[in-house]
Amino acid sequence: MATAALRMSFMTGRTASRACLARSTPATSVSPFSSRHFLTTSTPLRNAQTASSTATRTAAEPAPQAAAGETMEWNTYFAFRRSRRNYERVFMAPCALVGLVGAGYYFAQQDFDPTPIFGMDQFMVYSIGTVAAGVVGLAAGPVVGNMVFRAANSKAKPLVDRMDKEFFKHIVKNRADPSANSVRNPIPDFYGEKIKSVSEYRAWLRKQREYRRKAQFYVGVD
């Protein structure tokens, strides 16, 4: 009897454990699907978040420094420099002519009076005024030419301005001390206005060195 009862209890335990497993099977069968579904839906979300953070970080980063320090070749710069000088020279004559014609037309419309102006004849005063207007136009020619050059080369204007500053730094650094300037030893092209190419700049450097040697020699003699 004891053996039969023990066997009966063992069979009952096995039946109960099987029932528990049967009841728990649907829950475990759902979990792999649910976890797999969560991964497939969260991966695009993580990619979108990563792309958004990357775009935000890229937008927040400063612009590359290469654009700010961009320069041009010296030969190209000297070509622009020559072109600008040509613009300035070409506009000198038209501006002077405009000044002369404008002033002459204005004074021609005035009534001539024998009363002297500043102790001089009125015709003489008008003539001097006309010539003065022409001189003013001649002096304004380079300014107008420079404005036209900058308008015609608007894309290269920032680079030309930057190279102007860099070129002037080289001139200031390498030019000789003008304190020893004299009639026997005049300083050559103090502002470097005659330099039109790299070879002329090298020749300018040689002249500056020669000027220094002559200045030391003349100081020693004096």
Folded structure, characterized:
With 222 residues, the protein is mainly α. 77% of the residues lie in helices and 0% in strands. It has helices spanning 2-60, 65-68, 74-90, 92-108, 122-152, 157-174, 198-221. The longest helix is centred in the N-terminal third of the chain and has 59 residues, at 2-60. The radius of gyration is 45 Å and the shape is flat. Residues 24-45 and 54-67 have low confidence and may be disordered.
Task: Give a quick summary of the entry.
With 222 residues, this protein is mostly helical. It has helices at residues 2-60, 65-68, 74-90, 92-108, 122-152, 157-174, 198-221. α4 (92-108) runs antiparallel to α5 (122-152).
Query: Rg from C-alpha positions?
Result: 45 Å
Structural class: mainly alpha
Question: Distance N terminus to C terminus?
Answer: 144 Å
> Could you give the order of the helices and strands?
HHHHHHH
Uncertain runs = 24-45, 54-67
| Count of distinct strands | 0
What coarse outline follows from CA principal-axis ratios?
Answer: flat
Largest sheet: none
**Strand residue content:** under 5%
Name the helicity range.
over 70%
The number of helices is: 7
Mean pLDDT: 75
